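Session log. Operator J.P. requested a structure for one protein chain; no other inputs attached. Running the standard single-chain path with token output.
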Amino acid sequence: MARILLLHGPNLSQLGSRDPAQYGLATLDDVVAAARTEAEADGAELEHLQTEHEGVLLERLHAARGDGTDAVVINAGAWTHTSYALHDALELLTTPKVEVHLSNIHAREAFRSTSVIAPVCDGAIAGFGIDGYPLAVRAALALLRRRSA
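Structure written below.
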């Protein structure tokens, strides 16, 4: 059974009430449920972590190197645009990594159009709201199958 790690960075705990015009009305629980449903439909297991503390996210990524995590789906929130530490932690992982964003980061403020984690992820999905999460899980599983073929 494939194990997918779904990670969320700062402020994503506020989904459902944070700027619904950008992020929609779905809560973080809704987002996780959509991702989990997709994973389970493919026979995979999904673990979720959301944190407001960058070090917690870094420690979880480091642990993923040896705990049987098969793929990572990550919405790093604002750290997407600023965290070279997160870039470096993701770079250490040899598993498939998919970046996901609810909003289209390329159609927003100029600072959001740069992702410092994109170069160390296999791909990115942005702008599809909650529907992007099942797509990201599907992409991660497809990458995993391709690598093990």
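Operator note: The domain at 3-148 is CATH 3.40.50.9100 (Rossmann fold).
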